[in-house]
Amino acid sequence: MRISTLAYSIRQGLKNIRRNKLFSIASIGTIAACVFLLGIFYAIVTNFTHIVDNAEEQITITVFFTNGNTEEYKAEHEAIGEQILANPDVADIKYTSSQEAWDEYKGVYFGEREELAEGFGDDNPLANSASYTVYLKDIDKQSEVVAFLKGLDGIRDVNYSESTAETLSDFGKLAGYISVGIIIILLAVGIFLISNTIMIGISVRKEEIGIMKLIGATDYFVRSPFVVEGVLIGLVGATIPLVLLYFIYEKIIGYVMSQFSTLQSFIDFLPTNQIFKIMIPIGLLIGAGIGFIGSKISIRKHLRV
Amino acid sequence: MILLEDVNKTYSQGAPALNGISLKIEKGEFVFIVGNSGSGKSTLIKLLLKELEPTKGRICVNNRDLGKMKRREVPRFRREIGIVFQDFRLLKDRNVYDNIAFAQKVIEKPTRSIKKRVPQVLTQVGLSEKYKSFPKELSGGEQQRVALARALVNGPSILLADEPTGNLDPKNSWEIMKLLEEVNKRGTTVVVVTHNREIVDAMQKRVITMNKGVIVSDEEKGGHYYADKYVSL
């Protein structure tokens, strides 16, 4: 594209916006509403996913050995550990030796009343209970990994919680489906509304478009100012709610946390910067994209001259 | 060169607008197309611009078969043709200079060449002093001269004029015709659709007369008389 053509398209695009001030403002408003809802939705879904991810991290599988005594079978345990780590669905493993298991038990069940454990002397009742805690990359793969672990030689028992993993995994999927559905609806509404606005601009300039086509303008040249108009409206429409959301996000999180202080112990919201690092480019892209597609749809039939 | 072979055009409803038209216009010719309203003159112009597709037949313009032309090739093809309408079709929100420059911008000519070319055509149509005026500040004749300048600015090999004097008084009509004749002398093929009997009779050019979608006469140095025969008033 020539620089003069680009300048022409931008000039005409701005002129169109000025000419149809009311409809342009209406379009900016609609896109702003769309992006605002998308933004809120994105923040909710991302935070929800983040919370689910955190919860998923807590879900682990515990593996006990047939020969569970650390002192005697350390080498065998290490060999099994290597086999577990080689599984692609396993993120990490943590070894708990017989002594650590006993210490942990004492800490949990006897607490500060250590004297209760004195009766055991130097005996370790959990001498045969060394274990691996297995962390998964994806909670969906729990049953496959459990089957894999059960199939390994030297494994006595595999402990896991099927229902928690399934519930979290289902939650994640549901959130995904709902978000895709809502995003599609909002995008369709946005495209429909902006294409109507551009259509009004086109009807005003119908004669001009006809003349342009008859004197040899390419579709691309005729289309450019309308595309510029659509993209500009889309960008302005997206910027407003993004700025708004940026400032209210933190306030809302602060409010939720202060009102429901019990949440603090197990819910961790994402910080503003982390959310907006992705939301800003996505929001602008969606705004510009709605404008681009909306303008292309409305100009298409007018180019058939 | 313009060539039509057995061209038919039927709109979705009603009788055929053109019925078996065969016609050849050589490069550099000046041709009048005359006929009653509804005789198919405007349909013919639209077909030559590839604004419409024929129902049947073959149309060649400048050795290019319009039936075989791809959609993306149409803009380039139209740049070889200048077009003038009865109602001028100027852009009301732009002044004379911008209306003419617009035709060059549309085909993405560089600004430097536009600045050089527009004053040349303005001089050619005798409007160099009115380049800042807006269409509503001009007389009908002046507006048509702007439209003519716009049609000529890209140096077309063919100029199509659809009733160019239809909205003008006799004096202005003659001025436009003189300009068209001048353009023709410089080598451009000129096809004028008109009702203007006086001008057709006086200019003694080739006259093609149409009636109800067929060519009823094609005279080398004709007049409007054939058309008169078919005009039912």
Q: What does this protein structure show overall?
A:
The complex is a heterodimer of chains A (305) and B (233). Chain A is of the alpha+beta class and 305 residues long. Chain A has 2 domains: 3-55 and 166-303, no CATH class; 60-160, Alpha-Beta Plaits, CATH 3.30.70. Chain A has helices spanning 3-19, 21-58, 70-85, 98-110, 142-150, 162-204, 206-214, 219-259, 272-300; strands at residues 60-65, 90-96, 131-136, 155-159. The longest helix of chain A is centred in the middle third of the chain and has 43 residues, at 162-204. The model of chain A has no long low-confidence stretch (mean pLDDT 83). By secondary structure, chain B is α/β, with parallel strands linked by helices. Chain B has a domain at 90-155. Chain B is 34% helix and 26% strand. In chain B, the strands form 2 sheets. In chain B, strands 6-7-8-3-9-10 form a 6-stranded mixed sheet, with helices on both faces. In chain B, helix 3 (96-106) packs across helix 4, helix 4 (111-124) crosses helix 5 (140-152) and helix 5 (140-152) packs parallel to helix 6 (170-185). The model of chain B has no long low-confidence stretch (mean pLDDT 90). The chains are: A alpha+beta (305), B alpha/beta (233). The A-B interface holds A 2, 4-5, 8, 207-208, 210-219, 221, 305 and B 49, 51, 72, 75-79, 83, 89, 91, 103, 105-108, 110-111, 150-151, 154.
Helix-strand blueprint:
The complex is a heterodimer of chains A (305) and B (233).
Chain A: H1 3-19, H2 21-58, E1 60-65, H3 70-85, E2 90-96, H4 98-110, E3 131-136, H5 142-150, E4 155-159, H6 162-204, H7 206-214, H8 219-259, H9 272-300
Antiparallel strand pairs in A: 1-3, 1-4, 2-3
Helix pairs in contact in A: 1-8, 2-6, 2-8, 2-9, 6-8, 6-9, 8-9
Chain B: E1 2-10, E2 16-25, E3 30-35, H1 41-48, E4 56-61, E5 64-65, H2 74-78, E6 81-85, H3 96-106, H4 111-124, H5 140-152, E7 158-162, H6 170-185, E8 189-193, H7 197-203, E9 206-211, E10 214-219, H8 225-230
Parallel strand pairs in B: 3-8, 3-9, 6-7, 7-8
Antiparallel strand pairs in B: 1-2, 1-4, 4-5, 9-10
Helix pairs in contact in B: 3-4, 3-5, 4-5, 5-6
